[in-house]
């Protein structure tokens, strides 16, 4: 398959390298110092599942690439709308643009720009980041990627993507029956992990040891699940307990990408996370005081880092 990775950062770089190792034609879209390093030295992935280095064409102009079978859309949620406007050169009639991002609104934002027929939902369970230009480090998480057509149909293109990901070493690939459920399932966890590590500036291990903080962690998950069900998303009954058990097994030093961005003066995905919970909760008349608290605490920081 011909695959473009739009946003070759921690998640996109990992996927691009693994798919290239499996023999696919992979093109990277990046910017800044990271792009310069990709062009001069290639991409290196340092992973708990095994390291790899690949030399791939990299650019900041999608017109250099042309139409692809698949676009893995891996930009930060706050860049979704601007980046979506640049996708046109990558699109053919059947191109699948797979959103592999945080939040539950990106697919709608993409569809508004490029048409729903191109949009595929995706969820990533991986802790990875750019540690220096040209180098992606995968430190934790199962490297599980879940994806599916928004209407649940088993199209030819989604089965080809499933075949490609399933055959790639270092990727745990899952074709979902209902990707909207998967998007909200992860959303519930990430709002808790991101919100609590960012507001407290402490890793999950210390949150687990503090009764009040661990109770808030649980309540954030519960609130998101309540909003999802009120919005018609059929989340499994055990979602809250499942995520708490998962969080109990995380490395005690684990933070989140929201914490990283906060402490490195980068733009925050707050609007796509807790801001989104608050908006969706208002639409379905559900109270979400814990998510409102996280949003209120981090809002000044989001505004400061935006400037």
Automatic annotation (TrEMBL):
One of its GO terms (cellular component) is cytoplasm. Pathway: Cofactor biosynthesis; coenzyme A biosynthesis. InterPro entries: 6-PGluconate_DH-like_C_sf (IPR008927), 6PGD_dom2 (IPR013328), ApbA (IPR003710), KPA_reductase (IPR013752), KPR-Related (IPR051402), KPR_N (IPR013332), NAD(P)-bd_dom_sf (IPR036291). Coiled coil: none annotated. Gene3D superfamilies: N-(1-d-carboxylethyl)-l-norvaline Dehydrogenase, domain 2 (1.10.1040.10), NAD(P)-binding Rossmann-like Domain (3.40.50.720). It catalyses: (R)-pantoate + NAD(+) = 2-dehydropantoate + NADH + H(+); (R)-pantoate + NADP(+) = 2-dehydropantoate + NADPH + H(+). Residues 178-299 form the Ketopantoate reductase C-terminal domain. GO terms for molecular function: 2-dehydropantoate 2-reductase activity. One of its GO terms (biological process) is pantothenate biosynthetic process. Keywords: Coenzyme A biosynthesis, NADP, Oxidoreductase. Residues 3-151 form the Ketopantoate reductase N-terminal domain. Its EC number is 1.1.1.169. NCBIfam families: apbA_panE, PRK06522.2-2. PANTHER family: 2-DEHYDROPANTOATE 2-REDUCTASE, PROBABLE 2-DEHYDROPANTOATE 2-REDUCTASE. Catalyzes the NAD(P)H-dependent reduction of ketopantoate into pantoic acid. Belongs to the ketopantoate reductase family. This is 2-dehydropantoate 2-reductase.
